[in-house]
Write a structure and sequence with these properties.
- It is globular, with a radius of gyration of 15 Å.
- It has one domain.
- It has a 4-stranded parallel sheet with strand order 3-2-1-4, with helices on one face.
- The protein is an alpha/beta fold.
- It is built from 4 helices and 4 strands.
């Protein structure tokens, strides 16, 4: 079954929303381009990061505190039910809890 036949993407996980590119993605997700389509955006935030105040109380935005570089069951559980994942992270990369790789 094609993605179009399954219906719209109602819940999107966004990683990197505090950066220049990530904030542009978040703005695009919240922009009404199809009347009545208002996807929920789960904004994954590492400890110590703060989302722009204009998005904090937005009805479509849900901030998800998560130390995602550690990976694991907590991350998997928080992603459950999402239709899409968008990552606009920058930096040297993450190994998601693997101790056998640098990064």
């Amino acid at each position: 079954m094609s993605r179009a036949a399954q219906g719209p993407l109602n819940t999107t996980a966004l990683f990197g929303a505090t950066g220049m590119l990530g904030s542009a993605f978040l703005e695009a997700f919240l922009d009404v381009v199809v009347e009545g389509y208002k996807p929920k955006v789960l904004v994954f935030m590492r400890p110590g990061k703060v989302l722009n105040t204009r998005y904090e109380q937005h009805a479509q935005v849900q901030v998800v505190p998560c130390d995602y570089p550690k990976g694991g069951d907590d991350l998997v559980e928080k992603l459950r039910g999402t239709d899409a994942l968008v990552s606009v992270l920058s930096g040297p990369g993450y190994t998601f809890g693997r101790s056998d790789q640098g990064g």
